[in-house]
Amino acid sequence: AAPSNTGRPGPSSMFTPSNVQLAANPAGSLDELKSLGVDTVHLYMHWADIAPDAGAFTRPHFDATDPAAYPATGWANYDAIIRDAKARGMGVNLDVVAPPPNWAEGKGAPDRAAHPYWRPNDAELGQWVTAVGRRYSGHYTPAGASSPLPRVSSWSVWNEPNLGIELAPEVIPHTQIEVSGTLYRDIVDASWRALHATGHGGDQILIGEIDPAGATFPGAPGLFGAMAPLRFLRAVYCVDASYQPLKGSAAQQRGCPGKPNASAFVAAHPGLFHASGFADHPYTQGLPPNEPTPHEPDYAELAGIGGLETALDRLQHAYGSSAKFPIWSTEYGYQTTPPDTEAGTVSPAKAALYLNWSEYITWLNPRLRSYDQFLMTDSTAGNFATGLRFPNGSEKPGYAAFRMPLYLPRTSGAKGDALEVWGCVRPSHDAQQTSHRRQHVKIQFAPASGGSFKTVKTVLLTGPHGYFDLQQHFSGSGRVRLSWAYPHGPTVFSRTVDITLH
User: Fold this and answer.
1) Of the candidates 45, 17, 95, the residue with the CA atom closest to the CA atom of residue 375
2) Which of 265, 267, 270 is nearest to 251 (CA)?
3) What is the phi/psi pair of residue 361, to 5°?
4) 57-92 burial code (b ≥16 CB/10 A, e <16)
5) Would you say 486 and 492 are in contact if contact means Cβ atoms under 8 Å apart?
6) CA–CA distance, 304 with 361 (Å, rounded to integer)
């Protein structure tokens, strides 16, 4: 077996499935994710799914910190998913997210029924997160169960808070004064306190979960629009465009101290400075993964991840902290046509290429700790079609690309040149553990002049996530792919890459 670069183990594998599809068949869905080599399931827990009388505007009388005070039906799907993931040796990153119940909505929404995301009550949120933390402490046995529920040790706080459809208002009405940053700061504070109070203080707790883009035209984002993520983060941390703490009325309008006091601000908002990391949804909106949206320095796409890193460091430095948050990708993918007809889509074949290219970029950056795939199967509505399967269940090219990524940074050159071959066999680590046998992947080549694929190198996989990187000579132009066999199972292949050697 050929040696390869295993000094960079690469990101862990995360998957964000549809809650509806996952709840419909938790065991079967998780079996498939396990077969694809997924390490962690990023699971959204919606507050309104759990809360009693979520559609009412009057708060019911109950102890919101007690898991048993909530309807058992609200917990049932989440319990099953968390139990089944634990049984398969998979981690769960539990993201406590909107919508809140209507009775936890703040005052002033233009339409109370349509805008439950409006100024959610952070005290009520803290009580709900306390109940969640108790339930998944590893010591809680629900009524009728014979054993405690598994412990959850990885958490995220909210989802895309820089979008008005997730947290509103984004600005004070009729102004450009950011207010969603204040709301999110309160959400992080309440969630942080609740998780620490329920024995999860040593767990992984991620903040951010930001959408990578936002409207930057005059008058944007309005009450319910999308705020550019770095602008949003500056408001969360109470700094101006130069990353200096806000003062006076500019600070007070954004819920910040009128007189900056770095140590007091850090003490008041520990989650902003002591979180385990920062979560980003670095979608590239149909562009190649190395190409940022032009003229948008406040975006946080994969191609602009350096700008996000710099911003996070400057936010810490503004308060005397030297922390450098690792960044976790917790939603990612490419929308494909078919079935999607929205702007920013690509063909299924191009999506497969871009997914592997994106993962290579992620692997190169040691500050990026996860690579995420959002959705397994596209919805029948065809919108936001980032899944690995079409709505009818058939596999897109992205399915094989996710299971066994292959990327060649350079696909042409002179005869005799070596080409870099980077790849991953995502299920290999689990296969090694279950079979007790070292795993190998075959690099195969078929000449452009015709003929079948033949193995040109066998590579030993030694890292924890199945990555390898090496230089390989090929005899000429042709096609390259990877081949790997499940223990006692089928042989599977990567996508095919064309190379040209003159």
Assistant:
1) 17
2) 265
3) -60, -40
4) eebeeeebbebeebeeebbebbbebbbbbbeeebbb
5) yes
6) 11
Mean pLDDT of 332-344: 95
The three-state secondary structure class of 271 is: helix
Distance CA 288, CA 286 (A): 7
Question: What distance lies between CA 481 and its chain's CA centroid?
Answer: 28
Q: Token digits for 82? A: 């968390």
The dihedral of CA 295, 296, 297, 303: what is its sign?
negative
Place of tokens 């596999």: 395
Residue 222 near residue 207 (C-beta atoms within 8 A): no
Residue 449 has pLDDT above 80, yes or no: yes
What number of residues does the chain have? 502
Note the pLDDT tens digit of each residue in 156-212. 999 999 999 999 999 999 999 999 999 999 999 999 999 999 999 999 999 999 999
Within 13 Å of residue 168, how many CA atoms lie on the same side as its CB? 24
CA distance linking residue 37 with residue 341, whole number of Å? 30
- CA distances for 146 relative to 67, 139, 140, 285, angstroms: 17, 12, 11, 47
**Contact (Cβ atoms closer than 8 angstroms) between residue 126 and residue 136:** no
230 neighbors 297 (Cβ within 8 angstroms): yes
Look up tokens 């412990």; give the residue. 151
> Which residue reads 């079979």 in tokens?
435
Q: What is the pLDDT of residues 116-141, one digit of tens each?
A: 899 999 999 999 999 999 999 999 99
In angstroms, rounded to a whole number, what is the distance separating the alpha carbons of residues 312 and 495?
36
DSSP assigned state of 389? B
CA distance 179 to 167: 10
**Location of structure tokens 């949120």:** 125
Output the CA torsion sign for 346, 349, 351, 354.
negative
Where do we find the tokens 């009128």? 258
Radius of gyration of the chain (CA): 24
User: How far, CA to CA in Å, does 64 sit from each of 129, 142, 183, 198, 248?
Assistant: 9, 16, 21, 14, 37
Of the candidates 460, 469, 472, 395, the residue with the CA atom closest to the CA atom of residue 428: 460
Question: 391: which 2 tokens?
Answer: 């709505």
Residue-wise pLDDT for 225-270, tens only, equals 999 999 999 999 999 999 999 999 999 999 999 999 999 999 999 9
